[in-house]
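Moderator note: this is an archived Q&A kept for reference. The question asked for a predicted structure of one protein chain; the sequence and the answer are reproduced below.
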Amino acid sequence: MRLDELLDELHVRIDEVRGTRDRVHSLLEAVVSVGRELDLAQVLRRIVEAAALLVDAEYGALGVIGPDGRRLAQFLTVGLTDEQITAIGPLPAGHGLLGEVIHHPEPLRLSELGAHSSSYGFPAHHPPMRTFLGVPIRVRDEVFGNLYLTDKRGGRDFDTEDETVISTLSVAAGVAIDNARLYEGAQRQQLWLRANAEITESLLSGSSRPAVLELIARRAREITAARVAHIAVPVDGVDGLVVEFAAGADGAGWQGLVIPFDGTLSGAAHRAGKPVTALNAGDGGQYHPAEGAEQGRDGLGPAVAVPLGTGGGESRGVLLLARCSGDPAFGEGELEPLVAFAGQAALALELAERRRDAEQIALLEERDRIARDLHDLAIQRLFATGMTLQSAARLVEHEGAAERVGRAVDDLDETIKIIRSTIFGLRTRDRDGGPGLRARAARVVGDAAPSLGHPPRLSMEGLLDTDVPPQIADHVVAALGELLSNAARHARSTHVGVSLRAGQGEIVLTVSDDGRGIPAQGRRSGLRNLEERARDVGGTFTVEAPEEGGSRLVWRAPLPGGR
């Protein structure tokens, strides 16, 4: 062999050694760069960037395999612009050639990827690609995802050395991913513990149920980096779960929504008593349109529904979390602390309900005490004072003074009736959970004061909240409002009195005033309405003209049972 040929061959060998040395150096730099990060998202991004750089690939991607082991839950790309990604549309789920590496986790190298039997071709607006190199990434003997590299620059094919370099990088990537996940898990555990402590502190400080629900939803959303979080609870008489609080995207639009039990993540989690996950919130009908107003579903991706229960029995509600499309799916490492947090949340709800019940019992006991004191102390003293005045009236010789004493006795008697009526109201719980007739009548009278120009005098007597059925109570309230409205428009009075009495088998509503009275030829449409309302319940309505002037309107209706 000639000397010049030997020198040329020597130069080639030297260049190869230098190239190998530079490549090894680049690989070591890539390994150090990947291992330096502790944030999982940054680790994954650095892995795919380093892989594309090491083998001089124009395009690179890292697909993270979902919990089911068959589909991609996350897909990071290098080489594509944002405009190209938007034009291509939804990220791949792991079918075709990408799925080949998922189902057979071994390195795959192709000179023409379109010629492979698993290749489906490319979607619209996807750049053409020819050469292909796929390598799995393992984390503790578990396939975490795959590296996909296409189109080696210069039109060359990926060779054995490229496959070796990427396989070596994948080993280092597995270690870096494992470290990042451990660090992320430890950080997340601290956040969950802090959130649990915050909820406990909120309960001990006496926070209300809505405040506790808001705290639970907001903290869960922050810790899991979810786009939306809501808590739905079962409600008697409703075939589904009702969203009691929502945080995040379109929170106001979710509030009060009824989520069906069938065909929804929340419904499935509530019935199963265990977490239910989905890789895509709107995939496969698992995420019902009612489970988030359509405007709130746009852009939602992985979701999880966790029942709020302390173990055993039906849940008290469901916490649903949904991330943005393209974000990582909820893995097993996230579900365990999330379930523990849900148990703490269920305990918080139970304590809030117990506190509410205790407060209600304390309120009823206080009402009973007030009623007892009024009956045993105030009424007896008023009655004794009235008896004393009656006895003194016989000794008063002046006729005017005797009349005043008599009026004082009548006022005391009326006061005793009012106090007795108040006692009945204090000792009666509303049957339907809403305000009773006594409270509704007082509210209507109070609302009429501005239009009348003076506050009406209200007198109530009898078992208004117990003996008057809800249907008749509604008529009474409507009639009272109409009578006071008529007085404000037409009476021109300076004094209006309202008397509401239940007893002797009927309820009687009387509204009197000292105005100009009701003209015989005046408009009577409002009075006809009151007459019809009374007839509807078997009652009567009369208009009286007292001698002292003004008017007295009496609306009465019979009560069932004739008590």
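Archived answer notes: The mean pLDDT is 77.
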